[in-house]
Amino acid sequence: MTKDDAMLDMPDPGALYAALTARDAAYEGRAYVGVTTTGIFCRLTCPARKPRPENCRWFTSPAEAAAEGFRPCLRCHPTGPEAEGHQTVASLIAALKANPDRRWSEADLVAMGHDPSTIRRAFKRHFGQTFLDIARNMRLRQGVKGMTAGQSVIDSQLDAGFESASGFREAFGRLFGHPPQQMRGAADLRADWIDTPLGGMIAIADAHTLHLLEFIDRKALPQGLRRLSGFVGGRIGLGRTSVTDRTETQLAEFFDGNRPRFDLDLQLRGTDFQRRVWQGLRAIPAGETRSYAELARDIGSPTSIRAVANSNANNRIAIVIPCHRVIGADGTLTGYAGGLWRKQRLIEIERSYVA
C-alpha cells in the first residue's frame, strides 16, 4: 500500500480530532498527529494537552511525520513500540517484570479494575498473545532454568508455579516440541533460555555453532525445533555451551548499543538461495533498512522478490540474521514473525548506531 492509499483509508480530520480528544486506542499504529505550533508529533492516545484543530496535521506513520520535520513527543514516544503508548498495557508489563513468579488469573485483572476481554484484545494487538499467555511463559522460564540446572521435572514444575504436571508438560512441549523428560539425556545440541529486553528467546547450539535463536512466543518455534531435531536424530537436550554464553553476551551488547554486528559462527540449514538471502541480510549495516526488491538486487536476483520474502520468513536465527531490517517498498513495517512491535523496537534501537 502506498502512502496515498494509506491516507485514503484514514478517517476525515474531524473524526481523527475526535479520536485525539478521546485518546482512542483503536488508532494506535494507524494515525499520528503533528502539532504545527510545537513541531512535535504524537500518538492519538498521548496524555498531553490537546492542540486546536487548525494546528493539527495527520500522518499514517512516524516516518511520514518525521519527514515533514516534526519531532517525536517525549511523553507518548510515538517512534517506540505501540505498547509503550498504552498506559494499561505498560503498567501490567511492569507488574509482570516486578513479580515474574506470580500466578495471574482473570480474577486478578478484575480486582485491579480491568475488563479481562479488553486486556486480552490489547495484548493480542500489541504482542500477538494474551497477558495470561505472557505470564505463563514467564513462569515456564523458571521451570526451564531449574531443569537446566539439574532439578527434577516435578521440582521444576513446582518452582514454575504449575500445580498440574500435565499442564507443565503441555506448556513445555508447546515451547520445545518435546516433552521435558525427553530433553534430559545425552544430546548433540543444547537448548537454553536467554532473556532480552524484548522477551525470552530460545538458543540452540553445539560446542562451535549457533543453530537456532527464536523468540519463545513465535508460533512456528515448535515446528522449527522439531525440524532441527530431525536433522540430529532427536538429540537435543537442555543446557548451554560456550556458544550460548557468547550469544547471550553479544545480545546484551547489541541492546546496550555496543555491538552493531554479531561475531558468531552460524549453522545455516537451508537451500543455497536461502543462505544467499541470509548472508545478504547480515551484510545490511545496523541502522539501515532494505526493501525486498533492494535485497533481491543486492544478492544478484532482482526478479526473485517473492522468494527473498519467503527466505526472510524462514530465518531461524533472529536478530543475529537481521530479517527485521527488511521493510516495505513504501517505508512501512511489514510482517515479522517475532511481532511488528519487536521489529519497530529493533529498528529504533539500531538508529543509535547510525547516530
Automatic annotation (TrEMBL):
SMART domains: HTH_ARAC. Residues 112-186 form the HTH araC/xylS-type domain. It catalyses: a 6-O-methyl-2'-deoxyguanosine in DNA + L-cysteinyl-[protein] = S-methyl-L-cysteinyl-[protein] + a 2'-deoxyguanosine in DNA; a 4-O-methyl-thymidine in DNA + L-cysteinyl-[protein] = a thymidine in DNA + S-methyl-L-cysteinyl-[protein]. Gene3D superfamilies: DNA Methylphosphotriester Repair Domain, Homeodomain-like, Methylated DNA-protein cysteine methyltransferase domain, Winged helix-like DNA-binding domain superfamily/Winged helix DNA-binding domain. SUPFAM superfamilies: Ada DNA repair protein, N-terminal domain (N-Ada 10), Methylated DNA-protein cysteine methyltransferase domain, Methylated DNA-protein cysteine methyltransferase, C-terminal domain. The keyword Oxidoreductase does not apply. Keywords: Activator, DNA damage, DNA repair, Methyltransferase, Plasmid, Transferase. This is Trifunctional transcriptional activator/DNA repair protein Ada/methylated-DNA--[protein]-cysteine S-methyltransferase. It comes from Paracoccus albicereus.
